[in-house]
Amino acid sequence: MRLEFATLDRTNAPLVLRFEPYRGRATPLRSDDVVFRLDREQSLLEFAPTLKVIDQYTAAEVRGRHRDPHTPREVRGIALGDVVRDELHIDQAVDGALVPAPLVRSHFLPGRQNRAGPPNVSNLDDTRATWHAEGLLRKKAREFLTIEGTAVGLPRLRPGRHVEIRGYRPPFNGFYYVTRTVHTLGSDGLRTRFSASRPGMELPPYRERS
User: Fold this and answer.
1) 149 DSSP β-pair partners
2) Cα separation of 61 and 79, whole Å?
3) What does the CA dihedral 138, 23, 192, 200 come to, rounded to 10 degrees?
4) How many other CB atoms are found less than 10 A from the CB of residue 12?
5) CB–CB of 77/123 below 8 Å?
6) How far apart are CA 203 and CA 144, in angstroms?
7) Which of 9, 126, 137, 195 could make an SS bond with 79 (beta carbons 3.0 to 4.6 A apart)?
8) Which DSSP string do the residues of 21-71 spell out, in sequence order?
9) Under 8 Å CB-to-CB from 52, ≥6 apart: which residues?
């Protein structure tokens, strides 16, 4: 669910409330939205990444009683690391394969499981239990690789869009989903500060790409 202006071409454009799937799943190079490319020390002036590996869930399990009183059985929903793979996007010409955040944790911390599992969740059926488990895993994975950046003024950059970061070494190049933007006008001109995230990264060893 998003509340945004119907268009950015008119200052008096009405607000529109949209219900749609999470935009981070849409492939940037094939979607109708503009993808903003930001190059190091050119259009991208500041770049600060943060990685959270140890906090990641390796799996999520939701359990509880069936919502139908005439179906007296336990319901279980399980989500594994691959569930967030549809939020990882690459340009195959220049990027290596990205690994989902839960699998990155398993790679660097082998044998150390970190399963999420709230006990006794109510109002469940098989589908709701699975969606609940997937939601837990996705939410945590979106905290895995986050960035704070400052770019030259991009008035059309807003949450729900993707940015393409270039000019850094792996694993920081690539596409990120924008979660926050702040536009300022000062003595140095128009600047756009933004926050973005990606629920995975390329694993070493890295190879040089043109």
Assistant:
1) 47, 194
2) 7
3) 40
4) 5
5) no
6) 14
7) 137
8) S-GGGS-TTTSSS--EEEEBTTTEEEEEEEE--TT--SEEEEEEEBSSTTS
9) 143, 144, 145, 146
Tokens of 179: 């979660």
Distance of alpha carbon 120 from alpha carbon 68, whole angstroms: 15
**pLDDT value of residue 79:** 96
Q: What's the whole-number mean pLDDT along residues 25-38?
A: 78
Strand order in the sheet with 174-186: 36-39, 162-166, 174-186, 189-198, 145-152, 44-51
User: By the 8 A CB rule, do 201 and 104 touch?
Assistant: yes
Specify whether the CB–CB gap between 199 and 144 falls below 8 A: yes
d(CA 5, CA 154): 16
In this predicted structure, the answer to whether residue 8 has a pLDDT above a threshold of 80 is no
What residues does 100 pair with on adjacent strands?
200
Instruction: Give me the pLDDT at residue 2, please.
Output: 66
**Are 18 and 2 contacting, i.e. CB atoms less than 8 angstroms apart?**
yes
pLDDT for the residue 22 = 80
Over residues 171-175, the mean pLDDT reads 95
pLDDT digits (tens, 9 = 90+) for 75-125: 999 999 999 999 999 999 999 999 999 999 999 999 999 999 887 888 899
From residue 141, alpha-carbon distances to 2, 16, 148, 199 in Å are: 21, 29, 17, 5
